[in-house]
Specification:
It contains one helix and 19 strands. The chain is mainly β. It has a domain of about 160 residues. The chain is globular.
């Protein structure tokens, strides 16, 4: 049981109280004999901090502190003109604001787990996690043209990009894992995660397709990687050589499909196509992900956010190490802090499997549906990398 209170400036609400409760029950426990089965449950509230970079961005891009000028065929070099002299060349300012009523993103998490002790020092665990996120960060153009009239609510200002905490997400995960300490020379751990996550934002920089209609934004989250498998271990072989593999495999990451044009005048290119119903229209594009209409008609179903899924990822990493003890034993026993020389080879993606990044989702691009970069992060690397290391411990 615990209680945590968090406080941060630049927020309009400071009621960030985070209670947490966890219980464990071991049926069949007797005296000092630990139970073979343990059931666990927990619930808690957690808060994420709003990065100070958002406040600094809003301060810098408030339309005053930082301005942009574009001068065609300048003839004043080497003199540097003043801001007043450049006034005629000033560009429309896209202003950034941090909503004064923002709240810290809140996560409410529930966990249920069952742990079973098996023979040979093997422990199997299955865990269910449900997470609900509220007050998640996203961005919106509050000066987008009003539907119907096309008028700008705040007049001639080009765009007012607002950081606001109005997003949400829900995530369910089922995790199965096995940990084994077979003996002093061999240990390993493996896990499988089944994941489903839905949200209406993927972070502070996420803009909706329509700033006045946020409902359709709720869909598959960018971090909703359906399946993930991990395995790692450590094996001490002959001659003191230690082998440590780390294997990762994961399903593809969802990504957004967009038209590539600003069809509602909000200065953003987040507009999504409609699901094509009349394949004879010239605005229909057929792709491997389906047929889409780039000029949606009233009443047509707009494509959900993060509709497509990128390529899966797999990476096999391997570490080989050899430790040489330089200190002599004292009274026939090893020293508590011996001097050691450690030689190691670290091979990441040693099979050199090409892990491709999320494909291009812009339907106006000739590269739509193609990956133009290599993936990285989460134990995944794009190409093989081998590091040689020598470390001296004393």
């Amino acid at each position: 049981m615990g209680l945590r209170y968090e406080w941060q400036n630049h927020l309009g609400d400071h009621r960030d109280v985070a209670p947490r409760l966890g219980i464990a029950y071991g049926p069949g426990a007797q005296g000092n004999k630990p139970p073979k089965t343990v059931l666990r449950a927990g619930i808690g509230v957690f808060y994420e901090r709003i990065s100070e970079s958002l406040a600094l961005d809003a301060l810098r891009r408030d339309g005053i502190h930082q301005q942009q000028f574009v001068v065609d065929s300048p003839d004043f070099y080497p003199l540097v003109p003043t801001a007043a002299q450049l006034a005629a060349s000033q560009q429309p300012q896209a202003i950034r604001e941090l909503y004064a009523g923002n709240r810290a993103p809140q996560l409410a998490q529930t966990a249920l787990a069952a742990e079973r002790q098996l023979p040979k020092n093997i422990v199997a665990t299955i865990t269910y996690l449900h997470t609900h996120g509220a007050h998640e960060l996203r961005s919106r153009n509050t000066n987008a043209p009003l539907p119907g009239s096309g008028l700008l609510p705040y007049g001639g200002v080009s765009a007012l990009y607002l950081y606001e905490s109005s997003g949400r997400f829900n995530q369910d995960q089922l995790i199965g894992s096995v940990t084994a300490r077979v003996n002093a020379k061999l240990t390993f751990n493996g896990s499988y995660t089944l994941n489903n996550a839905r949200s209406d934002t993927d972070g502070a920089g996420t803009f909706p397709a329509d700033s006045y209609n946020l409902g359709p934004e709720y869909g598959r989250a960018a971090f909703s990687i359906r399946n993930r498998v991990q395995f790692n271990g450590s094996w001490s072989t002959r001659w003191g050589l230690r082998v440590s593999p780390f294997l990762t495999a994961a399903s593809g990451r969802p990504f957004n499909i967009t038209i590539g044009r600003d069809i509602n005048g909000d200065t953003l290119f987040t507009d999504r196509p409609a699901i094509a119903t009349d394949l004879t229209r010239p605005s229909v594009v057929r792709t491997a992900y389906g047929a889409f209409d780039l000029s949606p008609l009233p009443g047509q179903t707009i494509l959900p956010r993060n509709f497509a899924v990128g390529p899966g990822q797999i990476s096999c990493n391997l570490r080989l190490s050899k430790t040489i003890t330089l200190s002599k034993p004292e009274n026939g026993k090893p020293k508590e802090d011996p001097k050691e020389l450690v030689f190691s080879v670290n091979a990441r993606n040693f099979l050199n499997h090409p892990n491709m990044a999320t494909p291009v989702g812009n339907l106006s691009s000739s590269l739509f549906g193609e990956s133009v970069a290599l993936a990285g992060g989460g134990g995944i690397v794009g190409v093989r990398r081998i590091d040689l290391q020598v470390r001296f411990n004393f």
